[in-house]
Amino acid sequence: MNPEQLRQILNTGESIEVEFKTSRTDLNKDAFESVCAFLNRNGGHLLLGVKNDGTVEGVQEDRIQTIIDHIITSANNPNKLSPPFYLSAKVIQYQKKQIIHVYVPESSQVHSTAGRIFDRNEDGDLDVTKHTDQVTQLYLRKQNTYSENRVFPYTRLSDFKSGLFKRVRITAQNLSSGYKEHPWVSMTDEELLRSAGLFKHDHQTGKDGYTLAAILLFGKDETIMDVLPHHKTDAILRIENLDRYDDRDDIRTNLIESYDRLMAFIQKHLPDKFYQENEHRSSLRDRLFREVVSNMLIHREFSNAFPAKLIIEKNRVYAENWNRPHGSGAIDPANFSPYPKNPVIARFFKEIGRVDELGSGIRNVNKYTGIYTPGAKPEFLEGDIFKTIIPLISKKSTTQIATQITTRITTLKMPERIIELLKENPSMSRKELAEVLGDITEDGVKYHLDKLKEDGKIERVGGTRGYWKVR
């Protein structure tokens, strides 16, 4: 949230998705009632340092970190918020005063705080704990909205891959801070599934059972195909054979092993670059595509038969998956509101170190793309199909080419100059060629390209996303 957006919210006032709290020196005692209500309804913005009428008083500067720590600790404490939910807080300077902004996304589960369930309406937070019908409606709405919560009462532990539980425990323990034992280590497989929110009560049928999320994370391949026959993730290499593919992995397994196979496919076909961050040297390729792969797997809408795809091309990598959109068009990594698509699965992936906080994926992809492909920026397109596009050729490449070889080719005739440029970058468009050459129009470039093609000196491989092959 930037200052302009904050100003608009302050002018509009509190609503079903906005709550003000003064919290001058301490977090208001009823702040988590609003957090709980936002989680249970449509999500919202909690602004600390603001009076009910929208007057900005600000949070006392020496108390900011204490209040933020209180929010994060309480959100992860099941005695304060059940089930726990990861929250982050940011400080915004407004009119020389400090405001703490907490974005609370909609959750796929029904939450309570201090044993009470709250819902949200235009008038604020409503305690609905004793209103059985309203609580039941909350559960039904969550279950119908989030396909990951669908209950399969006849699924048994024997339908899961037993070896995955051991692996998950080891991974979670290795990521656990210090020498503290991760809670999953001492749990049975059934207790682990329940602890991770993968066992629920179906308020429509009255039956208990493991959820679709449990089956997608731990299920045997045949179990997954039984409950979700269309489940599939495609990994495709398409560089030479653009009509079909050069290599492919047709993945129809659980999400944990799907992640492994997608990363192995990337490691097989994309070069690595090492990167120094916080005194640690790591694989830049793995850091970048860890985010792309995880986002594609955990934020897809599994009820739709559209297969998720990871496609490596000569000039780019793009991932796409069916989506439950909250908007349409391009997403600005510097200014967007993240929405959880499958919060239970996302939290599980966070626990085993494959994602960070909600929204971090887009920010990290944006960060690492510019390092992996210098000067390039990723694209994120929201819609029924969510797309992530990672350029493999720097946007600066045409400028670099112009600087490096323009002097060398100025004495050549135009067709030869075009050939030399295509040798440097076979993917240059007519527009880019015209820009580098400087003394020719796009139509002129097209004329020479067509003539060179007729003479057999160049060959077009693929369509608009293809490249020129110099013979």
Q: Can you give me a brief rundown of this structure?
A:
The protein has 471 residues and is α+β, with helices and mostly antiparallel strands. The chain has helices at 3-12, 31-40, 64-75, 132-145, 162-175, 189-195, 212-218, 221-227, 255-269, 284-298, 343-351, 360-372, 397-409, 414-424, 430-437, 442-454, and strands at 18-21, 44-48, 81-82, 89-94, 97-104, 112-113, 116-121, 124-127, 151-152, 199-201, 208-211, 233-238, 247-251, 274-277, 280-283, 308-313, 316-322, 329-330, 379-382, 385-391, 458-461, 467-470.
Please tell me about this protein's structure:
With 471 residues, the protein is of the alpha+beta class. It contains 16 helices and 22 strands. The strands form six sheets. Strands 13-12-16-17-20-19-18 form a seven-stranded mixed sheet, covered by helices on one side. It has a four-stranded mixed sheet with strand order 1-2-5-4, with helices on both faces. A four-stranded antiparallel sheet has the order 3-6-7-8. Helix 9 runs antiparallel to helix 10, helix 10 (284-298) packs antiparallel against helix 12 (360-372) and helix 13 packs across helix 15. 33% of the residues are buried. The mean pLDDT is 87.
Tags for this entry?
4-stranded mixed sheet; 7-stranded mixed sheet; 471 residues; 16 helices; alpha+beta; 38% helix; 22 strands
Total of helices: 16
Spatial order of the strands forming the largest sheet: 13-12-16-17-20-19-18
Unreliable residue runs: none
| Portion in beta strands | 15-25%
Shape: globular
By helix and strand content, what is the structural category? alpha+beta
End-to-end separation: 53 Å
**Secondary structure: helix percent:** 25-40%
Question: What value does the average pLDDT take?
Answer: 87
Rg computed from alpha carbons, rounded to a whole number of angstroms: 26 Å
Main beta sheet: strand number and arrangement? 7 strands, mixed
Query: How many beta-strand elements?
Result: 22
